[in-house]
Amino acid sequence: MEHLSFCLVCGGNHISKELSCKDFVASTEAFDLHRCADCSFLFTNPRPSVQEIGPYYQSDRYVSHAGSKDGFSFVYKVYDLVRDYSIGRKIKLIKSFHSSGDIMDLGCGLGYFLNALHKDGSFRPVGVDVSEDAVNYVRENFGLTVKGETELDAFAPKSFDVITQWHVLEHVHALNERMQQLKRLLKKDGTLFIAVPNSNSWDAKHYGAYWDGYDVPRHLYHFNKKSFGLLMQNHGFRIVQTRAMVFDAPYISMRSEVHKGGSAAFLRGAASGILSTMNAWVSGNYSSLLFVVKNIL
Ligand SMILES: [Zn+2]
Q1: Which of 25, 35, 119, 168 has fewest C-beta within 10 Å?
Q2: What distance in angstroms lies between residue 227's CA and the mean position of ligand 1's atoms?
């Protein structure tokens, strides 16, 4: 295990334990979350190192949703139905910033978003993923250009108009190094689209240690608007838009209900998802946040 004695966002060392959470999907082990008193950054600490984290990804959630026969299968089906709609919304949003160009989907997983970009035809998409299985799957299933994460440094500087990371940054051990890579690879007038769970959302507060968005120990960081904004600023970026990932509130809430072990998880989760979203209409603290980020010029 790797113990962080300082905050990866502001460098401060006023950190203390705030919460203990269980890994509900792979190991059932408990992990602590520590908060930085200086910048409000919340992170899993201690955490499995890069060498140790592999086994924690051995669950249906991360290996594949396809053909799941466990209690989550209905949730996955709903998720798959809305996935295509969400992908369409993401592409529409990207097009409001760039009509064409080179896109990297960093953390492309099984390649659904990448394939939709390819079919759309407006961009030249490239996928990158840390998982060799995912890289092979996308190549074989969709025949798309996809590379392993170790090949990131091989791309020429300023190769991309757009880089997307959909629920990926919270998994990256070398957080500041990753931000530097993004800085190097993005064109001067390029745009980052980064979605992360929001630990200041209504559903995070409501479910506490059961909140599915914590997803320890795979989620190493639990951003809020402030800590995310500071991280971007530190690396020469600015947030130009903060948006909702509208389907995440019910999805995360339903899974949180399952973790709690109560009855009627689907209905209760749907209700919490609606409450969280309505709350966020005022606070802006949606269950997950999609940040649109540009270079500071
Ligand atoms: Zn800090």
Answers
A1: 119
A2: 7
Query: pLDDT tens track of the chain, all 297 residues?
Result: 999 999 999 999 999 999 999 999 999 999 999 999 999 999 999 999 999 999 999 876 665 544 444 556 776 777 778 888 999 999 999 999 999 999 999 999 999 999 999 999 999 999 999 999 999 999 999 999 999 999 999 999 999 999 999 999 999 999 999 999 999 999 999 999 999 999 999 999 999 999 999 999 999 999 999 999 999 999 999 999 999 998 899 999 999 999 999 889 989 999 999 999 999 999 999 999 999 999 997
- φ/ψ of residue 69, rounded to 5: -115, 5
Distance 2 CA to ligand 1 centre (A): 18
SS3 category, 161: strand
Alpha carbon of 59 to ligand 1 centroid (Å): 31
Q: How far apart are CA 61 and CA 105, in angstroms?
A: 20
Q: Give me ligand 1 centre to Cα 85, in Å.
A: 36
Residue with tokens 């590379």: 147
pTM: 0.93
The amino acid that residue 284 corresponds to is: G
Cross-strand bridge partners of residue 127? 105, 146
- Six-digit token string for 182: 């993004």
Q: Which of 82, 50, 60, 24 is nearest to 214 (CA)?
A: 24
Cis peptide bond prior to 217, omega within 30° of 0: yes
